[in-house]
Amino acid sequence: MPGERPGPGEAITRLEALAAELDGRGWPARLGAPPGRLPRLRAANPDAAALAENIYAQPVADGTWWYWWPWAEPIAAEPAGAAEVITRALRAVTAAGPTP
Questions:
Q1: DSSP collapsed to 3 states, the chain
Q2: Are 42 and 48 in contact (CB under 8 A)?
Q3: Residue 13 predicted with pLDDT over 80
Q4: How far apart are CA 22 and CA 33, in angstroms?
Q5: Where are the domains of the chain?
Q6: pTM summary value
Q7: How confident is the model at residue 95 (pLDDT cuts 50, 70, 90)?
């Protein structure tokens, strides 16, 4: 993830904001902050536990904070926008028959 590696405090605060946004949508999210590693938020589809991903919060070069997928692709800068993208990406695809 681009930018300097800041201390975990700001990242945790931002991940907690995203967790609250996901919780408001009925999506469980669990914060993890293991020593010596980047804090992360484990977001999971409530209807399909296998559809889950770790999310990170890190700043870019200009100091703007973003939420990131673990493969270093940015998601969004704001919790609501990130929650929208995450829930859309982790939504279970249902098999539906043809529509009339």
A1: CCCCCCCHHHHHHHHHHHHHHHHHCCCCEEEECCCCCCCEEEEEECCEEEEEEEEEEEECCCCCEEEECCCCCEEECCHHHHHHHHHHHCCCCCCCCCCC
A2: no
A3: yes
A4: 18
A5: 8-41+48-81
A6: 0.84
A7: very low
The answer to whether 82 and 18 are in contact (CB under 8 A) is yes
Give the span between the Cα atoms of 44 and 41, in whole angstroms.
10
Nearest residue to 43 (alpha-carbon basis) of 58, 53, 51, 33: 53
Strand 29-32: give its sheet, edge to edge. Answer: 29-32, 40-45, 48-59, 65-68, 74-76
Residue with tokens 């100091």: 63
> Six-digit token pair at 57?
């919060």
> Is the pLDDT at 88 greater than 50, yes or no?
yes
> What are the pLDDT digits (tens) for 30-64?
999 988 899 999 999 999 989 999 999 999 999 99
